[in-house]
Amino acid sequence: xxQEPGLAAPYAIAAAYCADLLEAGGxxxxxxxxxxxxxxxxxxxxxxxxxxxxxxxARVREAVARRRMKRALLSDGVERxxxxxxxxxxx
Length: 91
Fold this sequence. Notes:
With about 90 residues, the protein is mostly helical. The chain has 2 helices and no strands. The protein starts with 7 loop residues before the first helix and ends in a 16-residue tail after the last helix.
């Protein structure tokens, strides 16, 4: 599954740039910055697939709920009905 670089790419590029500066004799505090940027890169790389799986699970639950509602309405003798719209209970 190929993914676009998305939000992780700038962090990875910045980490590589800071690591290059560090190797070229830069200040030691750049180690901390490189560590922080790599950590943020990993977080963005991992959250993409996780959020996609959560979205798929939510869509499956919604489809199951619609199917159950349709079956319940048909078993109650309702012959024609429109798909239920989302209605806010708070006015």
